[in-house]
Amino acid sequence: MVTITCVGIVVADLLGRPIDRFPEKGTLSLVPEMELHVGGGAHNTGVVLAKLGASVRVVAKVGKDGLGEVVATALSRNGVDIQWLSPTDEYHTSATMAMVASDGERTFLHYTGANRALKEEDVPDEAFSDAQCLHLTGTFLLPGIDGEPTARLFRRVREKGVLTSLDTYWDDTGKWLATIDPCLSELDIFISNRDESSRISGKKELVDNARFFLDRGIKVVAIKMGEEGSFIMTNEEKILVPPFAVEAVDGTGAGDAFSAGFLVGYLNNWDLYQVGLFANACGSLCVGKMGATQGVEGYEQVKKFVDMNG
After folding, report:
1. pTM of this structure
2. What is the CATH number of the domain that holds 63?
3. How many domains does the chain have?
4. What one-character DSSP code corresponds to residue 199?
5. C-alpha–C-alpha distance, residues 8 and 53, integer Å
6. What's phi and psi for 11, nearest 5 deg?
7. Residue partners of 219: CB distance under 8 A and separation at least 6
């Protein structure tokens, strides 16, 4: 069993679908489905990791409110250690309104909230010293820890012999490389999607994009490409992993599910192509159900899916 510490954002998600048009100001439109879920990279990746058999602890911030209790309950119910999930008086729990179109495409309204309060000192050595990997998810949405604080945290993590991993989110400030650059030299595993990684590197071609990060000392780069599959690159290998054909119901959390699958395979020293297939399968299963983690049920389900469709 692998042990992973997930650091990052947790969010209460209100999902509505299908929403293919927005009501005019001052009017109301009926929505066929609306559900309250818990999301955010630390929650989504942590829960899927736990479902895949990993031992997981989450380090994150919530507000002292009802949504914070919802987040804590959701994590605990899925077997995630929440002793480092801490409340703050500064903000309410982060929340997102996710509007899901009939084709699965998502549009968001997001309140950063308590995630803004997460600081480097909220991640003590005890939270990761016995782990194989510390995975930071939510970069660009964590103003209290983004940039140099992340670099310092990663240096501390590596001094304990623990691998460092990072998954990006969209940077609404447009700073991209300026924010993330300090920590790249302290990073072992870089996970991102094609658009976000290209905005960081300034490189459009897939290989050039991945090479940008490898040249900064990163061991492995995994680029999520949705319906095109994924691309994994190290200094020795370049691997294009094909997608699985599935009917998309809700794309929420698919990238986080990919990250969880990737980490499980990589930390178990699988062949990189098999790592990519397993990660793609986790993402594909995720989009088949409403909500960020409902589609992935467990390790055997994902392996069976890969064996039947790979």
Report:
1. 0.92
2. 3.40.1190.20
3. 1
4. H
5. 20
6. -145, 140
7. 188, 189, 234
Q: Is residue 25 part of a domain?
A: no
- What DSSP character marks residue 94? P
DSSP letter string, 129-165: TT-SEEEEEEETS-TTTTTHHHHHHHHHHHHTT-EEE
Tens-digit pLDDT profile for residues 79-136 = 999 999 999 999 999 998 888 898 878 788 889 899 999 999 999 999 999 999 999 9
The sign of the dihedral angle between the CA atoms of 93, 99, 104, 106 is negative
Domain of 236 in residue numbering reads as 3-20+32-309
Number of Cβ within 10 Å of residue 104's Cβ equals 18
For residue 44, which amino acid is it?
A: N
Alpha helix segments (H runs only) across the chain:
41-51, 66-77, 148-159, 177-184, 194-201, 206-214, 254-267, 272-287, 299-309
Over residues 3-57, the pLDDT tens digits come to: 999 999 999 988 898 999 989 999 999 999 998 889 999 999 999 999 999 999 9
- Answer whether residue 27 is part of any domain: no
Residues forming beta bridges with residue 224, ordered by sequence position = 193, 230
List the beta bridge partners of residue 36.
14
